[in-house]
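Methods — Computational structure assignment.
A single polypeptide chain was analysed. Its primary sequence is given first, followed by the predicted tertiary structure written as structure tokens.
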Amino acid sequence: RQAEHLRALAEACEGAVEALELAGVAVAADELVHGLAAVDALTGADTREDVLDALFARFCIGK
């Protein structure tokens, strides 16, 4: 199960880099949210709202 979450994290990071180059910050942020979900699944944490609030406050993009 951990390997599956790590693969999902790697795919999300790769997707974020690609999205940043091709589609912009909003799409890259969405990819990173998927990566964060994988990290949360690995650690048992629930950090999504905190990270999203910080990200959207800094980059002025909508939820």
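Note: The longest helix spans residues 2-22.
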